[in-house]
Amino acid sequence: MAEISLAQLLEAGVHFGHKAYRWNPKMFPYIYTERNNIHILDLIQSTQLLKEANLYLESAARQNQTFLFIGTKRQASSLIALEAKRCNSYYVNHRWLGGMLTNWVTLKNRIVRLKALEQEEADGIFNLLPKKEASLRKTELEKLRRHLNGVKDMEKLPDVAIVIDQKREITAVKECRKLGIPVVSILDTNCDPDLVDIPIPGNDDAVRSIKLILNSLTDSINIGRSKIS
């Protein structure tokens, strides 16, 4: 299992929550104190719950389950893609398109279209088309890549979702809950712990905090995969 110490969490600023007036009272059990109108999370709990999340993901990976990383905010976007690729998983790091999971048939059709356009591009067909038609197809291809590149090889619904910023990705979280897909999520002080299965109380705004936690979760997936017999 990927081990992260309390000192590492402290150094990465994982304990910093939002301004006190933005809090969700359901997060009260995970809050240590309030300082300068900022809620401070209890890192002892965060350390333990991150450990439990790592154990869960390692076990799921050992069972050959699939993972979908979700995080579209600017601070998380590139990290989401990097860590998902590092553990050979899927990701959405631009805008979440409503129905990406609950309307799976439509998503699969869009993926088929993406792959068809990519094949046309590779075969040089765009160069044979009238300039306007070629431009339209290139624009469509860029848009589909931006939204679907991280899931274009996902042949079925994921077994587990890993979410950064529950508030921003609430549509994705609700789709996962509707479909019974377990959600592992960093929970800042403005989040609702009732909407996730595996909570990790922590700062979901700071790049260092997101990077440390994501890195740990990805390491656990890779450890689990290495133990598949």
TrEMBL record:
<keyword id="KW-0150">Chloroplast</keyword>
<keyword id="KW-0687">Ribonucleoprotein</keyword>
<keyword id="KW-0934">Plastid</keyword>
<dbReference type="Pfam" id="PF00318">
    <property type="entry name" value="Ribosomal_S2"/>
</dbReference>
<dbReference type="InterPro" id="IPR018130">
    <property type="entry name" value="Ribosomal_uS2_CS"/>
</dbReference>
<comment type="similarity">
    <text>Belongs to the universal ribosomal protein uS2 family.</text>
</comment>
<keyword id="KW-0689">Ribosomal protein</keyword>
<dbReference type="GO" id="GO:0009507">
    <property type="term" value="C:chloroplast"/>
</dbReference>
<dbReference type="InterPro" id="IPR023591">
    <property type="entry name" value="Ribosomal_uS2_flav_dom_sf"/>
</dbReference>
<dbReference type="InterPro" id="IPR001865">
    <property type="entry name" value="Ribosomal_uS2"/>
</dbReference>
<protein>
    <recommendedName>
        <fullName>Small ribosomal subunit protein uS2c</fullName>
    </recommendedName>
</protein>
<dbReference type="InterPro" id="IPR005706">
    <property type="entry name" value="Ribosomal_uS2_bac/mit/plastid"/>
</dbReference>
<dbReference type="GO" id="GO:0005763">
    <property type="term" value="C:mitochondrial small ribosomal subunit"/>
</dbReference>
<dbReference type="GO" id="GO:0003735">
    <property type="term" value="F:structural constituent of ribosome"/>
</dbReference>
<dbReference type="GO" id="GO:0006412">
    <property type="term" value="P:translation"/>
</dbReference>
